[in-house]
Write a structure and sequence with these properties.
The structure holds 2 protein chains of 2 kinds.
Chain A: H1 10-14, E1 16-25, E2 28-38, E3 43-47, H2 54-61, E4 69-74, E5 77-78, H3 83-89, E6 90-93, H4 105-115, H5 120-133, H6 150-161, E7 168-172, H7 180-197, E8 200-205, H8 208-214, E9 217-222, E10 225-230, H9 232-237, E11 242-248, H10 251-264, E12 268-271, E13 274-279, H11 282-295, E14 300-306, H12 310-318, H13 323-326
Parallel strand pairs in A: 3-8, 3-9, 6-7, 7-8
Antiparallel strand pairs in A: 1-2, 1-4, 4-5, 9-10, 11-13, 11-14, 12-13
Helix pairs in contact in A: 4-5
Chain B: H1 2-16, H2 19-40, H3 53-83, H4 85-90, H5 96-124, H6 132-161, H7 164-170, H8 174-179, H9 193-201, H10 203-217, H11 221-252
Helix pairs in contact in B: 1-5, 2-3, 2-5, 3-5, 3-6, 3-10, 5-6, 5-11, 6-7, 6-10, 6-11, 10-11
Classes of the chains: A alpha/beta, B mainly alpha.
């Protein structure tokens, strides 16, 4: 067995090890020869636009979708050959919340814990503890989940994923559609699980801020392939220390500016906000930029100097900005999404 | 066993929370019992007819109730697939067999409860059992197994199509199973030869025969053993189809 890097530590074996993992749907390569090594105890952020292959990868690692080829080991067990052991070791909250609307929150947690081998008495204790953890302890006990709000359901779904104290937790877009306060609650809980219980957490997200704040390391996936991987700081540093954002009156001006600057400063990229250029020291470059635009008679509306964000990393890696895709598209159809 | 009992209890609980899904099938069964008994009981005066017409038609009402139980299991699966809860269950280490047995066995239990009510009604209407209370238990046992066999088929279609309308439509195949048989008269009175052939190849005929034998004739091994063999074979086939689809669901979802 060979790995991408040739080395793998026992930590990675107990965390998540992915080797050349692929999944096709017909002609579409939803996940294309992905390699990953995630040591146990890490919070790993998986970023990508809708349809990039995030959910497909999570479903394969969680044993509910068979890989077309390649290998994956989760919590020490092979996802193809040791499905039962993988399932016992992992907790999963998929992007689509899966709850029976006719049942109550307690019933769902108790059943979940029992299906993982917990005795009924212990399962009841687990239910009380987890409802408290996710902030649903005060809900009327007889209230059926069908009457819960979207945010409450998502929190309950997280509680179900934790019902058996998993060693590895998969969270597929855990905060999509949540209000900011609920989002911060989930972040706090993820940090607590990681720091207090040493839980390995594999988190997919469309929110750059989420990956930036939570994850020890981040991978960016696009068209089924990993296009960048590293700590958030490393990824941002890779672009240069500073970014100059140029804004224009019209998109047309922005495109002309991009063409003009393409020769002089190839580290400029066109995003929705205008043109973003990456430099070790921005102040050295600004006069030249302004002069070039002036000579081409392109009016500049604004100029700001900033530090690169993960969005810049994303923009460079995928050629598109994530910002625009954050507001709409909550769902990621697993099969047809990668057609490009 | 922990997960089997937990899943059966969960299915029972959710069935009881939607009485609207249970009552129609039960009402139709009771309706059959009353209407056919009232309208066709003169069949019993035909020369060579043995026993009461009530005892003869009772199994028809019971098998029609079994269709209701099957619909319940199929609809429960569709509901779980639509809500995403089925995926949640697939993510647990639970045996795939337990995942489909939950709704199927719970459907069988609901059916048994309904059949008890139907039997009480029939006793109030004057039903006699040639084998006493033991025969009524045999009737209950057949109802349970036949209901599970139907449920297996409904669950198979639900998992295969993942579509509520298709699952409902599939339960329509049960109607020929009830009516292309010795449903209303014993075989010797069926005049059309195609219906005789249909009755011979229809497994339901042997379930009717077994139930009727204990109610009308007394303890006879042959109809009971044949009936049991047919029920078990049918349940094994539909159960295996359902399990096959449940295993496949893990690979495709």
């Amino acid at each position: 067995m060979t790995t991408a890097s040739g080395v793998r530590s026992p930590d990675v074996e107990r965390g998540i090890l992915v080797e050349q993992l692929s999944r096709r749907f017909g002609d579409l390569k939803a996940v294309d020869a992905v390699d990953l090594q995630i040591p146990s105890g890490e919070i790993f952020g998986f970023l990508g636009p809708n349809g990039a292959g995030k959910s497909t990868l999570v479903k394969m690692l969680a044993t509910i979708l068979a890989p077309t080829s390649g290998r994956a080991v989760v919590a020490g067990f092979d996802v193809r050959r040791q499905q039962g052991k993988v399932r016992q070791a992992i907790g999963v909250a998929l992007q689509e919340v899966g709850l029976d609307p006719l049942m109550t929150a307690r019933e769902l947690i108790v059943l979940q814990a029992r299906l993982f081998g917990t005795s009924t008495g212990a399962a009841r204790d687990t239910a009380e503890r987890l409802l408290d953890t996710v902030g649903l302890a005060d809900v009327e006990p007889k209230k059926r989940v069908g009457d819960y709000s979207g945010g409450m359901r998502r929190r309950l779904d997280l509680a179900l994923a934790l019902a058996h104290d998993p060693r590895v937790l998969f969270l597929d877009e855990p905060t999509t559609g949540l209000d900011p306060a609920s989002r911060i609650d989930i972040w706090d809980e993820v940090r607590r699980l990681n720091s207090q219980q040493g839980m390995t957490i594999f988190l997919t997200t469309q929110y750059l801020e989420e990956a930036d704040k939570l994850a020890d390391r981040v991978a960016i996936i696009d068209h089924g392939q990993i296009v960048a991987i590293g700590t958030p700081a490393e990824l941002k540093r890779g672009l240069g220390e500073e970014v100059v954002e140029l804004s224009f009156e019209t998109p047309d001006d922005a495109e002309r500016a991009a063409a003009v600057l393409a020769d002089a400063t190839p580290q400029c990229r066109l995003g929705d906000g205008g043109l973003r250029c990456y430099f070790p020291v921005a102040a050295h470059e600004v006069p030249g930029l302004v002069r070039a635009l002036d000579q081409a008679s392109i009016p500049l509306r604004g100029l700001t100097i900033d530090r690169p964000t993960l969005d810049d990393v994303f923009l460079r890696a995928t050629g598109q900005s994530m910002r625009g895709s954050e507001e709409h598209d909550a769902g990621e159809p697993p099969t047809d999404a990668v057609a490009r | 066993m922990n997960d089997f009992t937990a899943l059966i209890a969960r299915s029972l609980r959710t069935y009881l929370r939607q009485p609207a899904a249970i009552i129609p099938g039960f009402a139709i069964a009771v309706f059959f019992l009353f209407v056919y008994n009232a309208g066709l009981s003169s069949v019993a005066s035909l020369p060579g007819f043995q026993g009461s017409y009530l005892a003869f038609i009772l199994p028809v009402a019971i098998v029609s109730a079994a269709i209701g139980g099957a619909t319940l299991a199929g609809e429960a699966l569709i509901r779980d697939i639509a809500s995403g809860y089925f995926t949640k269950l697939l993510l647990t280490p639970t045996k795939r067999l337990a995942l489909i047995w939950g709704p199927i066995v719970a459907g069988g239990i609901i059916l048994v409860a309904q059949v008890v009510v139907i039997l009480v009604l029939a006793l109030l209407m004057g039903l006699g059992s040639a084998t006493g209370p033991g025969g009524l238990l045999v009737v209950l046992g057949f109802a349970f197994l036949w209901g599970m066999a139907f449920s297996g088929f409904a669950v198979f279609v639900a998992l295969r199509t993942r579509n509520g309308a298709a699952t409902q439509a599939a339960t329509l195949v049960f109607f020929p199973l009830i009516f292309l048989s010795t449903t209303f008269v014993p075989k010797q009175y069926i005049t059309s030869s195609w219906l005789k052939v249909a009755a011979d190849i229809n497994p339901t005929t042997y379930v009717f025969n077994a139930m009727r034998s204990v109610l009308i004739d007394g303890w006879r091994a042959e109809p009971l053993l044949v009936g049991l063999a047919v029920v078990l074979a049918f349940a094994t086939v539909t159960g295996a189809l359902a399990l096959w689809q449940a295993r496949k669901a893990t690979q495709l979802s």
